[in-house]
Amino acid sequence: MLKLRAQLKTPAHAVQGFVFALGVLLAACSGGTPASAPPSSSPGSGMTTVNVALTNDGCVPDRSSVPAGAITFSVINEGGDAVSEVELTSNDRILGERENLAPGLSGTFTLELEPGSYLLECEGATTPQTTFVVTPAAAAQSPAGALDDLLEQAADGYAGYVRDQTAQLVAATNYFSGAITAGDIERAKSLYGPARVFYERIEPVAESFGDLDHEIDGRVDGAATPDDFTGFHRLEQALWQTGNLDGMTPIAQKLIVDVGQLQTLVATETYQPAQLANGAAELLDEISASKITGEEERYSGLDLIDFQANLDGARAAFDFLRPALDQVDAQLSGTIATRFDAVQQALNEHRAGDGFVAYAQLNQDQTRALGQAVDSLAEPMSEVAAKLVG
Fold first, then answer.
1. Which domain holds residue 82?
2. Same structural domain, 212 and 237
3. Relative orientation angle of helices 303-328 and 364-381, to the nearest 10 degrees
């Protein structure tokens, strides 16, 4: 998930508007890295590292308080089979997180934190919340002028990108929901994938607003009752599994309301530069956790469309940050750009017309190759946040 802060400004590059046909993809890949050597020292100048142990009992930091500034949370799942992620929250907003950490895996996220009281949350643990306090720093530190300007431009540009994608999501969802209400199954199927693109590009932002992501994008597995299963995937189930739209009009209308709420929320949202980098890394994790496995679009098989959209969103965040990263670590910046191109090339091998082949058409070797390409990109991308704020 992506947790951010940014201002308004025209995006630094033109927003691409892709229309995808039906298509799909991929096989399993882990969502974290081996937990053998978590960082115990600062990954960058002025950086504070907080080690967080994730177990079935809870998520426990190695210290309960740190000074304000750049903070890297290094999370290790020390054998908890009931928990797989840690979130840092404030006032019911998710600021940063690390997901898909099976026992033995580790991961990091980096944020600039102001003084205040926060919560480390790990759903499924016996003690799911731990208070974490950030105290005033001894002396205020501000980035160098030129780099600071580039980072501000990146955050502002990304905010514009998010607003643009959300506006397109609202329009596409209205068309899709209209077809549902009209009972036109074939038209609704043709509009489902294109509407999903805009959501998947900015999914980490949507996930930061409490339960809104569950309402829009929840899966049947996460629904406490059948009535709690709503949003895109409930309609996907009706279209491809049951082939019956009876009772789906209220679901479609609720989806319109929910994406409208998302548009209202992002209208004034601002983003930290480090959170752009976190969000790009999280989108790559999304590909590994639910697109390469075929879990996301289990009824329609359109996982490859989501894969492309997640990749688009991660690339957009990186492109906004790249001028600043070029100054800080040009070699890392070039490596990431090259590996983005490699993932896109690997994905393009499965195109069919304007879309992609179906997930079921991919064999194990093909899904493994896609997973390896994504992993190769995710590793250097995970270093960016600490580089920019360290």
1. 47-140
2. yes
3. 30
- Contacts for 92 with CB less than 8 Å, ≥ 6 apart: 210
State phi, psi for 348 to the nearest 5 degrees.
Answer: -65, -20
Residue 203 C-beta-side C-alpha neighbours within 13 Å = 30
- In 279-372 the beta strands, taken as DSSP E runs, fall at 351-352, 355-356
Handedness of CA 162, 146, 282, 359 (dihedral sign): positive
Are 122 and 224 part of one and the same domain?
Answer: no
Tokens of 77: 């799942």
Tokens representing 290?
Answer: 């639910």
Please tell me the predicted confidence (pLDDT) of residue 137: 83
Amino acid at 171: A
Collect all residues with Cβ–Cβ distance below 8 Å to 149 and sequence separation of at least 6. Answer: none
Mean pLDDT of 284-306: 92
Amino acid at 355: G
Note the pLDDT of residue 139: 56
- Count how many domains the chain has: 2
Facing residues of 73 across strands?
50, 109
Helix (H) or strand (E) holding 133: strand 129-135
- Res 206 pLDDT > 70: yes
**Residue 41 is assigned to a structural domain of this protein:** no
Mutual angle of helices 303-328 and 330-348, in 10-degree steps: 160
Span 125-167, pLDDT tens digits? 999 999 999 999 865 544 458 999 999 999 999 999 999 999 9
- Cα separation, 26 vs 295, whole angstroms: 9
Q: What is the Cα–Cα distance from 268 to 133, expressed in whole angstroms?
A: 27
- Token pair 């996220």: residue: 109
pLDDT of residue 42: 42
Beta-carbon contacts of residue 129 (< 8 Å; ≥ 6 apart): 58, 119, 120, 121
Residue 193 has pLDDT above 80, yes or no: yes
Dihedral sign for Cα atoms in the order 319, 266, 384, 141: positive
Give one word for 358, left, alpha or beta, with left for phi > 0 and alpha for psi -120 to 50. beta
Tell me: pLDDT of 34 over 90: no
Q: Are 109 and 186 within one domain?
A: no
Residue 274 in tokens: 């480090």
Residues above pLDDT 90, as percent of the chain: 71
**42 located within any domain:** no
| 77: helix, strand or coil | strand
Provide the residue count of the chain.
390
- Separation CA 260–CA 167 (nearest Å): 9
